[in-house]
């Protein structure tokens, strides 16, 4: 590839370490993710989903803010477009200077997923941007959990060869948006997938995993570990506590700051866990 940005995901795979990738929902998440990574003195991925861009009415403001924070960080930090569902958003992300993108064609028929992902790879690699794709749909985005879905190793190898992606999200037992950490990772399948494909593997829906399962997933061969819901639970809990402790609060900074701090503390803790 013609990649010019440092690639944290490849570096993590080579070092056999997990790399935490956390979702930016509000500006404060981006601040907290960088603060947590700096406290842990470890690299980090800030990721912005298509849905988060929709929430903000567009990708540009939140992406540029995240890029500014990543650039100013004292640790390696990259900004990634997460779960992009159309090529136009990928084009915008590339023009804004994001470091990597995920094109999510997991709900498409296999041939269409291959063809569209291939075109995204061509566009991105020409601009030094790395591409993550998904094969075997990690459910839960629509509220329907499907932890039984599995990515087949032979199909994963064929998909990587046919598309030229730089990393691959696989279905190995997790599901998006779980609010309790009770999922388990199919470790033997992770081992088979890691042996079958050369590119780093990405775990989505990692909020459903306990600390022990997160460590086991990395040891089995997962590299980029995506976490969103778990941090949002802590953020919202801290905001709720602050609001109930003082019902006269008016300044949003007084109740949002505790949420931001709760996220920073947990990001630092999880990054250390994944790197251990
Ligand atoms: O792409 C984002 C992740 O897969 C986050 O999933 O909210 O279940 O942690 P989660
Ligand atoms: Zn995801």
TrEMBL record:
<dbReference type="InterPro" id="IPR050246">
    <property type="entry name" value="Class_II_FBP_aldolase"/>
</dbReference>
<protein>
    <submittedName>
        <fullName>Class II fructose-bisphosphate aldolase family protein</fullName>
    </submittedName>
</protein>
<dbReference type="InterPro" id="IPR013785">
    <property type="entry name" value="Aldolase_TIM"/>
</dbReference>
<dbReference type="InterPro" id="IPR000771">
    <property type="entry name" value="FBA_II"/>
</dbReference>
<dbReference type="Pfam" id="PF01116">
    <property type="entry name" value="F_bP_aldolase"/>
</dbReference>
């Amino acid at each position: 590839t013609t990649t010019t940005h440092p690639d944290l995901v490849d570096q993590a795979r080579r070092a056999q370490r997990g790399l935490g990738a956390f979702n930016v929902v509000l500006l404060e998440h981006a601040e907290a993710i960088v603060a947590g990574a700096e406290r842990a003195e470890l690299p980090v991925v800030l990721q912005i989903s298509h849905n988060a861009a929709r929430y903000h009415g567009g990708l540009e403001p939140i992406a540029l803010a995240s890029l500014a924070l990543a650039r100013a960080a004292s640790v390696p930090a990259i900004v990634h477009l997460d779960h992009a569902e159309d090529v136009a958003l990928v084009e915008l992300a590339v023009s804004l200077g994001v470091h990597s993108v995920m094109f999510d064609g997991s709900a498409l028929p296999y041939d269409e997923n291959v063809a569209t992902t291939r075109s995204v790879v061509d566009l991105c690699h020409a601009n030094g941007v790395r591409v993550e794709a998904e094969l075997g749909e990690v459910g839960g985005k629509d509220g329907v959990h499907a932890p039984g879905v599995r990515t087949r190793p032979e199909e994963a190898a064929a998909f990587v060869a046919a598309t030229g992606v730089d990393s691959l999200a696989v279905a190995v037992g997790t599901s998006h948006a779980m609010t309790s950490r009770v999922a388990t990772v199919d470790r033997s399948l992770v081992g088979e997938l890691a042996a079958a494909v050369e590119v780093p593997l990405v775990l989505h829906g990692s909020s459903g995993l306990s600390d022990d399962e997160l460590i086991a997933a990395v040891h089995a061969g997962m590299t980029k570990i995506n976490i969103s819901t778990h941090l949002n639970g802590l953020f919202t809990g801290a905001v709720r506590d602050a609001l109930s402790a003082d019902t006269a609060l008016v300044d949003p900074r007084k109740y949002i700051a505790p949420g931001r701090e709760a996220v920073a503390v947990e990001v630092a803790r999880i990054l250390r866990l994944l790197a251990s």
